[in-house]
What we know:
By secondary structure, the protein is α+β, with helices and mostly antiparallel strands. It has 2 domains: 1-78; 130-247, Roll (Mannose-Binding Protein A, Chain A), CATH 3.10.100.10. The chain is built from 5 helices and 7 strands; from the N terminus they run H-H-H-E-E-H-E-H-E-E-E-E. Strands 1-2-7-3 form a 4-stranded antiparallel beta sheet, with helices on both faces. A 3-stranded antiparallel beta sheet has the order 4-5-6, covered by helices on one side. Helix 3 (55-128) crosses helix 4. The longest helix is centred in the middle third of the chain and has 74 residues, at 55-128. Residues 1-18 have low confidence and may be disordered.
Amino acid sequence: MVHLILAFPLIFAVAASETMVCSKFGYNWAAEIRCLRALLSQCKRSSNNREIVDVARIIANLTEHFENKLRKLKDVMQLEQQEKITALQARFENEFKISEMKAERKFSDFKRKHESELKKLIKRLDLATSRTSHYNDKEYIFVQDRKSWYEAEEDCLSWGGHLTSISDEHENLFVRGLLRADSTWIGVNDVQVENIFVNSDQTPVAYKNFKEGEPDNASHNENCVAMEASGEWVDAFCLVTKPYICKR
């Protein structure tokens, strides 16, 4: 045990200057242990030296040294752990936002699709339950909802017919009696060929009752025909919304 408390002058000088021995290796614990073992061997070889090293101070210095390293190590580990937690939290929040956005997009698409289908179904029910009028062997309905000529034709198709065609003066008078608006779409149009009028069911127009000065194709874009309250016809821009009459 005497060897453990004896050291040669170099060790005494190190202790006196309060320099921490074997502290230059950072966190290389193996190198630090080898240094301490070498120091112990030097102490044993210098047992004849009468100078007594302040072992308590060396031990205190070493204890403080290791405690400082331990605290630093704990701080580093806590910092790394916190950084990992923060990164994980950020990743989770980002993935959650992406999932939330995808879910909202799918819900919006689902809602939009089914709302459109619901509107079509409601429209079909409205048409199916509309009051019908009969002329010869045909059914007619007047629809107050304002639609473009193309939309009106689609609604009539869903009802099982077309925008009304008019074959003669008597049918024109009958259709006029169905009107509850000043201007109403009928099936006559020259969408495909200018001044070549056909019905929306692609049958030729056998009878015409255009108002004086009509059709005038104003601005070169009036290709659909509407009946006015007088029973006379005018050509109009097809995207203008009007009530309409279906026939089947």
